[in-house]
Queue: 3 jobs
Job 1
Amino acid sequence: MELYELTLHELKDLLKKKEVSSKEVVKSFFSRIKKIDNKVKAFVTLCEEEALEKACECDQQQEYDGIAGIPYGLKDIICTRGVKTTCCSKILENFIPPYDATVARKLKEKKGILAGKLNMDEFAMGSSTENSAFFPTRNPWDLERVPGGSSGGSAAAVAAGEVPFALGTDTGGSIRQPASFCGVVGLKPTYGRVSRWGVVAFASSLDQVGVFSRDVRDCALVMNIVSGHDPMDSTSVDIEVPDYESFLTGNIKGLKVAYPREYFQQGVDEKIRETVKKALHKFEDLGAVVEEVTLPHSEYALPAYYLIAPAEASANLARYDGVRYGFRDFEADNVVQMFSKTRAAGFGDEVKRRIMLGTYALSSGYYDAYYLKALKVRRLISRDFNEVFKDFDVIVGPTTPTTAFKLGEQSDPLQLYMNDILTVPINMAGLPGISIPCGFVEGLPVGMQIIGRPFDEGTLLQAAYSYEQNTDYHTVKPVLGVE
Ligand code: GLN
């Protein structure tokens, strides 16, 4: 067994017992990256030299606890002081932030070691990582397939053993969908649980930072570090953060599990439905009470999301004008032309599509018909969930309607948007959701989504951990043919 194959908690224990050094750990991951990342293409920036320096510092101090001395990756939307943060857009190609995002700072303070920045769909818009301005990332389970998106680099890196854990962001599914496609654990916390300060904004009322890991315990460990109120983010909520590891009891007797009828209908691949139904039986075997429920407004979530998210994006992305950040068109004769030429050359097609859609939905005369209507739908979706959570502790369903598709296969934007049909409602309601591996269809991983009450990530982790401990899907690793 090589060090790069171990989980965060296994590495932590070895370091603590002084059986390995941080330098050995970091070296093992970098040699893995060198061996396979020309195939997977998860990283857009590597920080090898700094990482080795940090590892030596850790080894000198000999204080190993939590993530100390252990490498990780960050989606390239999370600002890192002195390290390029591009959002995988041409417009930010050379942007080097002068500060760390709160989440990046927290990991640094715990002496975790940044291995590098991970590929994503430009400005987190997409479901396949094909919208990256640089190159697409590949799915470690089948290099002809996409890893999902927008945090595809984060999911692929964790699945391929390039880092033990990574952070991503999720606005409509961008953590859970790639986690599902790549067979790893992906948690989107409650809106307000984790600080967004220093994370480049896509749709501010939906964006949330979360964790990718190889098992549920690792997810809990990282959540313990990144969660909590941040005075720099007015939408982060000032309530106590429990010790998430304490929820990993392995006991879910009497837990009330709902499965929504709407999440098991046509449009969701039959084999995926069967796989998740099997998982529901497992929950029953473990002593949970499982019942069908209805979330009647589910079908309106996607259209409402594709008005709200672009509307917010059109406002957030107005700041990229060639004056303040990154790329600028120097050929223009005057300032107005400079703005428009910079944006025309700096943004990719999908980003432009969203800016146009959002600007239209917010324009006077259309605001009431589109944006306001979408906000009302959002409220109805929230209400559906509130009703179910009166009687149930968690809601379980598939994470995605299909398994990972081939690169180039979903070239129609509307087809690509359908990927989010089961994840978007959770963002609309601000709830926490986790995707964990629950089986395979034709050799490709299937993810099960567990949704919880606001700020009840603990119960999600409890349910996920019980399931994980009684199955072995999370232990199966992709074979990349270079071993
Ligand atoms: N795929 C969705 C979109 O394109 C969600 C993206 C996300 O969660 N960042 O908007």
Job 2
Amino acid sequence: MKILIVEDEPKTGEYLQQGLTEAGFVVDLARDGIDGLHMAQGLDYDLVILDVMLPGLNGWEVLQRLRARGQHMPAMFLTARDQVEDRVKGLELGADDYLVKPFSFAELLARVRTILRRGRSGQEVTTLKVADLELDLLRRRVSRAGRRVDLTAKEFGLLELLMRRHGEVLPRSLIASQVWDMNFDSDTNVIEVAVRRLRSKIDEGQTVKLIQTVRGMGYVLEVPQEP
Ligand code: CA
């Protein structure tokens, strides 16, 4: 999942970028409203975190312009000003959440995960299920046939992507950009290695293999069709 942070205060921006990256997200950081708007227009982010007071364009103006272009990715505002009118203004503009500085990283992370579980449909999804494979987005747990499977943050992100779009062949380039911050030209060996590890944890010893390689195209998670 890809997140854009627009924050002009270097310490806060870098701290959030590092924390969210360690939590398994792909994170871009913009330092002012104009760069932030430009980046958000160019890439399909799953969430935009906007500081309100920004040089160039403020956070509200950035969101206003994105919405005016028909971009409806979830958005969260950060602000130092705890004022009711700010909150109302942010929510009127279609923000999904609002966090007052100073906040703890744990709180931000919890809110980010809640927004991402809701996704664009506005309906909160807490569990993804394909056959006997279950991914619990709340507790960050995975189980296959009722048995717990331990995954790293990246493996969890990869599995979440495959499960959210199960039945769909995902090209390596898409996986690279959504789970790692890489371009298509980057070393795709990283993805192959990660898929192999994930497969050994999910499919090894199981009769039904859920993670399939589609030669020359990418990977798909689905119950294989009977021959
Ligand atoms: Ca600021």
Job 3
Amino acid sequence: MANPIKQMMAEGKTAVGSFIGIYSPSLAEMLGHSGFDFVVIDNEHGSYSWGEVENMIRACELAGTTPIVRIVNSTQSEILKALDRGAKGIHVPQINTGAEARAVVEAAKFPPHGTRGVAYSVRAAKYGLNKGSSYLQGSNDDVLVCVHIETPQAVENVDEIMTSGIDLAFIGPTDLSVSAGYPDNPDHPELEAMRNRVLESGRKHGIPVGILSTDRAGLDRFRNWGASYVGINFTSMLYSAFTSITR
Ligand code: 3PY
Ligand code: MG
């Protein structure tokens, strides 16, 4: 059950994936066949039912890419539903303090490390075939717990967030630019300073840092900057393919 994305980041590689908010197992398969390391099934801004999330996860597995689910908020029920469907990780948006991040980690881990409720009948436990400590320990070790740092308050509290037990800190550049007051200038020096502060804190505490980009140039830029995990927006890639024909 080992998580290949955790493995890649531990080896100092940059994992590359895509965020998709459109329900289509076929497109999820295409992302996997194209070589993306992970797919973030985006149910913060997407409109998937839990059954659809499960089918997207299945499609990712078929195509050899790691399925991760972005949930709408940090409640225990959202975290539980995503992990029980078989997600190998969760992205939790809008985390602003160490206490909020610790609550996410607790909800994502089975006892004794957390408070995640257990049912062996779920897909993640092979519907009851994978029971007991091998499932519990395996899941606790493998699940990627990622929180979004996307407000000036979160950047202010970044050290306590980094030491909360998370596996990955993800900078949400859109929310960060809007919440910091620079909606039209994502490259404003203040935003760059905030990104650098997050990266430095991650280095200090041994936690990888991820970020969203829209294209190959952004991927190269953030990989060189030090990102361990880069998600590319699915709709941007699609528009760029479409308009390469029409424009
Ligand atoms: C943001 O840019 O705000 C994000 O959450 C990216 O996924
Ligand atoms: Mg965001």
